[in-house]
Amino acid sequence: MIRRLLVIVFLLLSFSPAFAVNPDEVLADPAQEARARALSAQLRCMVCQNQSIDDSNAELAKDLRLLVRERITNGDSDEAVIAYVVSRYGEFVLLTPRFEGKTLILWGAPVVLLLAGAAAMLVAIRRRTGKATGTALSADEQARLDAVLRKSE
Amino acid sequence: MIIELGHYALVLALATSLLQAVLPIIGALRNDRALMEIGSVAAKATFLLVALSFGVLTYAHVTSDFSVQNVWENSHSQIPLIYKFSGVWGNHEGSMLLWVLILTFFSALVAVFGDNLPETLKANVLAVQAWIAAAFSLFILLTSNPFNRLLDAPGEGRDLNPVLQDIGLAIHPPLLYLGYVGFSVCFSFAAAALIEGRIDAAWARWVRPWTLAAWTCLTAGISMGSYWAYYELGWGGWWFWDPVENASFIPWLAGTALLHSALVMEKREALKIWTVLLAIMTFSMSLLGTFLVRSGVLTSVHAFATDPTRGVFILIILILFIGGALSLFAFRAAHLKAGGLFAPMSREGALVLNNLILTTAAATVLIGTLYPLALEALTGTKISVGPPFFNMTFGLLMLPLLLAVPFGPLLAWKRGDLLGAGQRLFAAVAFGLVVGSAIYYAQNGGPVMALFGIALGAYMIAGSLTELFLRSGLGKVTGAVALRRVSGLPRSVFGTALAHIGLGVTLIGIVAVTAFESEYIVEMKPGMTTDAGGYTLRFDGLRKGNGPNYSEESGHFTISRAGVDVAEAWSSKRFYTARQMPTTEAGIRTFGLSQLYISLGDGMADGGVVVRVWWKPMILCIWLGTLFMMAGGAVSLSDRRLRVGAPARAKKQKKPVLEPAQ
Q: Which of B530, B554, B526, B552 is nearest to B539 (CA)?
């Protein structure tokens, strides 16, 4: 369920495929080409700032795009293509870092913060609403109040 | 001589801001009105001096005085006049000077309009503002002086970065800084409240309009920047989760949270301590953004600075201010009295949820932006955190928030009725589903989730209107009475509705363009046609031309629909000679809320040229929505309550008020 939700949201907000692909790179099979585009959007152009190879005009990005397409036409699965590219270029190439020890804080922080914040706020609200407002009347004040009430009756 | 005058004015501004930083605080402690008054005078003087300094730098740019290093590095005698003006802040030194100019402008505003503030509060606010101004003036003078001269004045400048040679540069940074730096006032008010040890109603009434104004400007700045990137970078993307974009988006998220918590505080006296903390955090995020962009710690499209001494300097400023404010908070927060009780299911509760999600989202973006830097610094491992990560985490966080938005205004203060609010939103939900499916079928064939996204956007729009509809009592009373009721509503109600509608409109734009966009990459020779988004494009040929400081190659396209010519477009590639840099000037044609985006690629050996065409359905909704949000901010700001709301000047008191507020 969570996984499906992730996919949904990702689809909802994911960036549309972009532009730097040249007509001569496009694969003949539309299904394979679509896979290549989706994979390219997940891979970083190593010589650019914050661009995927799908978005970049750089030579290296073009080489990588061709590499991805070559692996796809050779029959590799999406996972296999990614694994191959990572084995050659390192994890830096992945725009979505893997969930592992060194990215624990990165992936865990939103969840932990949200839960901790929610817990803290609930506790704060509970404690505050449970607490009586003001202090109880002293014996003297109570007597005066009674007197006033009696007078008004 | 004139240049030296500007330089000297900046040195003087540092001196006056140091006076402003020290004397009013002493005055507030001793309740010495003369000392406190110095704060106002010094604030106005500092602003005038910085303005003079900025004016001189502008003069140097406009007259192309290449004996000034900053002008030589970032200007050219042949560029159009407007870029000579905007080039003043199109570089590190000038943009820092603009930063300080806007900061001192806000201090001067507090000095001029703060007559109805308690004297000690005003004195402390101005002092805190002056600490920031002094720190950044010193930063400019020591590490980023725009008035440095060159011994042998060169005959020609090195030109402004071609990507920045656009009207966008004239508007985007000033707006962004008005927002960024505007939050400094909220920060100063928070620090002043902590110094005084009290927060009262006057405090809340003052903080909310400042937050609103800063937030509105920041919204405009970010939105403008997004549209600029969209049309200028030539690939049709409008948000890249670039660290520099994140640097402005994090304060926006925190500022949006602050806007909502300030509302609770003003109306219900609740969440006081949290609001103070949030005010500190929001400006801290602005400072952090300034550090990220200005230190060159992230090198990206926007970052023009690369000198590490600057980074260390800003880092010290950052630590002093954020650390100082947070320590002050730690010492003093316990003295502040929390007020206003509420049940979890109430308008306050909804606003708490808003704050929880927005601050978590801000933290998520912050961690995602800093994580690769921290990991590399600590372990040497390089990883990337890119758009797919942010889309997933941020999107998941936003989903419950967007669903909850229409509920907030419908819940009563203190103790609300969720079921009742749900029933009242029934029509909005139904409307959302109908609109969602209608658009889905109209665009047939997009991903099913687009249906959900667009329905969510339409539900938010309808839900926001529901509030106005219910308040008017339309259907229960006559039209005239309903109209009178609506016109009698406080403006802030309209502001809320407008801003929430805008959020829905933006969401629809994002979803539609993401799901239904189509792309066509073709190799074209003159006379060839291609279909795109229901239109037909004919490529008519290339034309070479020359601009003042560039040469360009433009392709002409005729756009037709069903055989009838409806529009034409030029799409160009430019080459800026001074910097030897190419840029693209995409051809964009608007049809309703949708656009055709035409970008020229490389020429082929056989005389053809690669043309990339995108059909971007409903893309203008993205920015149209932000216009609604800005309008909402402006309308709220014009609320009578905010204009006259600040209490009449407190009676002059012999002793400073130090007891905590009720």
A: B526
